[in-house]
UniProtKB/TrEMBL annotation:
InterPro entries noted in UniProt: KR_dom, NAD(P)-bd_dom_sf, Sc_DH/Rdtase_CS, SDR_fam
Source organism (scientific name): Rhodococcus rhodnii
GO MF, any single term: 3-oxoacyl-[acyl-carrier-protein] reductase (NADPH) activity
EC number: 1.1.1.100
Keywords from the UniProt entry: Oxidoreductase
Record carries keyword Oxidoreductase: yes
Family: Belongs to the short-chain dehydrogenases/reductases (SDR) family.
Gene3D superfamilies: NAD(P)-binding Rossmann-like Domain
Domain Ketoreductase: 8-191
Gene Ontology BP annotations: fatty acid elongation
Keyword Magnesium belongs to the record: no
Protein name: 3-oxoacyl-ACP reductase FabG
Xref: Pfam families: adh_short_C2
Length: 247
């Protein structure tokens, strides 16, 4: 593979596991140095070690809802590797419940992590990138933000909001040379989805024309495309990685 991110530094939030870690791995393979931000510092450090240690990967404890944490995370990229070229806003959580049983705290937390966390990432990274007159920001939305899922009034709202935020930020930053795009995964095989009841899994599979779940690497390769110069004339877009589900 050509070194699409050679000499560039990328920050990935929620980078210790799942899709975030897969994106970090893809970026390192493409020549980037990565900074992994995660609430779980031990897991992030283990992930950084697996990627090749401090020469290519650094772990930082980060709560994306705290703007000072996001400042420190981005500073680790600039101070440690000399630049901030790519940011992937991947950190996310679920607190699924029907509206009748969902607590206000579970609503607030999901909105906070996804929407405020992504906003913190975009605005802080954009301030650094506009000085360099270049940069790419990739936000993780979800198919749930397009169609709405039962038990996910919080998550679906947050993921739809990320699409709107992506477009607004893309318009603000385009003349500064900073591109902002989003990825919307569908059913992706991970520890989280494999814990799903079999009936729910089967129901989702029946909705997928390609008749299989996606792999984390298939989301990561799209994130790499959006982070690299291969997508140099794309901003404000949301690419669906869903196997054709709900197209």
């Amino acid at each position: 593979m050509p070194q699409l991110l050679d000499g560039r530094t990328a920050v990935v939030t929620g980078g210790a596991q799942g899709i975030g870690f897969a994106i970090a791995r893809e970026f390192v393979d493409a020549g980037a140095r990565v900074v992994l931000g995660d609430l779980n510092l031990d897991a992030a450090q283990a992930a950084a070690d697996e990627l090749g240690g401090s020469a290519v990967a650094t772990a930082v404890r980060c709560d994306v809802t705290a703007s000072s944490d996001v400042d420190a995370l981005l500073a680790a990229a600039v101070d440690g590797y000399g630049s901030l070229d790519v940011l992937v806003n991947n950190a996310g959580i679920t607190r699924d419940a029907t509206m009748r049983t969902m607590t206000e705290d579970d609503f607030d937390l999901v909105i906070d992590v996804h929407l405020k966390g992504t906003w913190n990432g975009i605005r802080k990274a954009a301030a650094v990138m506009r000085e360099a007159k270049r940069g790419a920001i990739v936000n993780l939305s979800s198919l749930s933000g397009k169609v709405g899922m039962v038990g996910q009034t919080n998550y679906s709202a947050a993921k739809a909001g990320i699409v709107g935020m992506t477009k607004a930020a893309a318009k603000e930053m385009a003349h500064h040379g900073v591109r902002v795009n989003a990825v919307a995964p569908g059913l992706i095989r991970s520890a989280m989805t494999e814990a799903m009841p079999q009936k729910a899994w089967d129901q989702k599979m029946a909705e997928i024309p390609m008749q299989r779940a996606g792999e984390v690497s298939e989301v990561a390769s799209v994130a790499l495309f959006l982070a690299s110069d291969m997508s140099s004339y794309m901003t404000g877009t949301c690419l669906e990685v869903t196997g054709g589900r709900f197209m």
